[in-house]
Every structure is written in C-alpha cells, then in structure tokens.
Amino acid sequence: MKPWLSIFMSTVLMTGSIQAQFSEGQDVLRGAIGPAFSYMVSFELDEAAFADLGNFTLDFDITDAANTNSINGSGMVVTGFEGFGEVTPHWTIGMYAGQGEYAATGNDAAGIDYTVNFVLSSVGITAEFNTHSRSRLKLLGGSMFGIGQASMVASSSPANESWTDIVSGTTARKSFELSAWTPVIQPYLGLRFDISRSMGIKTIAGWNEQVASAGSWKLYHNKVITDSPEVPLRALFFRFQLYVIL
Predict the structure, then answer these.
(1) Strands (E) located in the chain
(2) pTM for the full model?
(3) Are 213 and 225 in contact (CB under 8 A)?
(4) Neighbours of 185 (CB within 10 A)
(5) φ, ψ (nearest 5 deg) of residue 6
(6) For the chain, what percent of residues have pLDDT higher than 90?
(7) Contact 117, 148 (CB under 8 A)
(8) Residue among 77, 47, 49, 40 at smallest CA distance from 186
(9) What is the pLDDT of residue 66?
(10) Is the pLDDT of residue 17 over 70?
C-alpha cells in the first residue's frame, strides 16, 4: 500500500494546485478527505475459473451449494480511503484506494488445516459532477478510473508441523499464490451532505467493472500462467464515506 499512499498524496497536492487556479476571483472552493467503506452486494468468485479448488480440499468446492457460504458468499466488505477537491463549483476530482477480502478455513479427518484468502484491491482517480446547491445536500454522479489487483493465497498445513519441518521444506505442506492486475472503472450516483463546516458524509451506489484478462495471472507475482482464464470481477456496490472538510 505504500506506493499507493505516495500516489494518493501526490494527487491531493495536484488537486490543491488546480483548485487554487480555478478559484481565483470566486468563492473559495473546498476539499475533503476521510475513510470509505464499501459493500459489494453481488460479488462472487467465478465458478468455472476456481472449480478446481474442490480438488485442493472439499471445504473450498465453490460449485457445491452446501459449501459456498465458506468462501464464495454474495458479498465482500471493502475498506479504503478517499480524498477529493472542488476544481469548479460543480466538478470535483480526487483519489480513492480500497481493499476487500474473502477468508475461509477448513480441516479434514487427517487433521490437515486449509486456508484460502481472496483479496481484491483498487486505486484510482475520481471525477464527479454535483448540483452545488446552496443547501448542505448535494446530488452527484461520477466515476473512478484506475487499476486493481486480484490475488488468491491457499495453503494446507499438516498437523503437528515443527519449525524445522516448515523452514527446511520437509513438510507435506501445499500452497500457492495467484495474482493479476486489472483495469477498474466504477461509475456511480449518490449524494454528499455537510453535517457541519468541518465534517460531512458521502454515500453512493455504483458498479465495479473489473476483469482479469486471460493469461494475465501470475504465480507468486513473477511466473506468468499462460493458460490462465479470463476472470470477471464485476459487482454492484454501495459506499459510505465520513469526510473531514479541508
């Protein structure tokens, strides 16, 4: 996340510079920053792409309706951070970064523990048009344009593993990590409400358009998996932000 933080801070500074240029000779325009919480209400792992998890362990067979609640539920919570600044009375630009995760654990009769983590991250620039009404309430429409990364880490851990077994590699442990970079577009509609002169809330509903293309997946971030399939990561989402007015 550290590179993303640098990008975020650079964008905030750039926004302030642009804002200062546009605000000459008119009322002072404002910026805001704060945490953002999203819920992807229709996000599910692609069953065709990840069906073979059932061979890794039956606990993660996402094609089996009896097990889907453990790893492939219909929602994902995403936590993040967003900052934005007014560049004209009706337009704002800003920066958003967020990350969500599925996590599942299981074990079998032989005492082997299994874990799977599926992580979805995104960072990008936002552009919004708002009503700029004289009231504290503003209706808005906009979109985030950026990049994202999907990753899956899975491992099995035999019972009674010792430190020596793990470090020396003599254990029967199995593990893998897959990842892919993707373009991300998030069009949305919503509203902002200034609770006071120093604080406000923003709530939006939108669509996460994100697809990992075929052949883009890598093993441990460096070995390209040439026959990896296309994996859609689309979802309807709702986002809530509590911001501090700068």
Answers:
(1) 31-40, 76-86, 91-107, 113-130, 137-157, 174-194, 199-212, 218-219, 223-224, 231-232, 235-245
(2) 0.81
(3) no
(4) 14
(5) -65, -45
(6) 53
(7) no
(8) 40
(9) 58
(10) no
What is the per-residue pLDDT across 114-173, written as a single tens digit (0 to 9) for each? Answer: 888 999 999 999 999 999 777 889 999 999 999 999 999 999 888 888 999 889 988 888
Pairing outcome for strands 218-219 and 174-194: antiparallel
Alpha-carbon gap, residue 109 to 199, rounded angstroms: 54
- Burial (CB < 10 A; 0-12, 13-18, 19+), residue 55, is exposed
Distance CA 160, CA 124 (A): 44
User: Count of alpha carbons within 13 Å of 121, Cβ hemisphere only?
Assistant: 12
- The beta-strand segments (E) located in 14-112 are 31-40, 76-86, 91-107
Residue 53, CA distances (Å) to 59, 116, 125, 154 in order: 9, 10, 35, 9
Could you please report the per-residue DSSP string of 175-208?
A: EEEEEEEEEEEEEEEEEEEESSSSEEEEEEEEEE
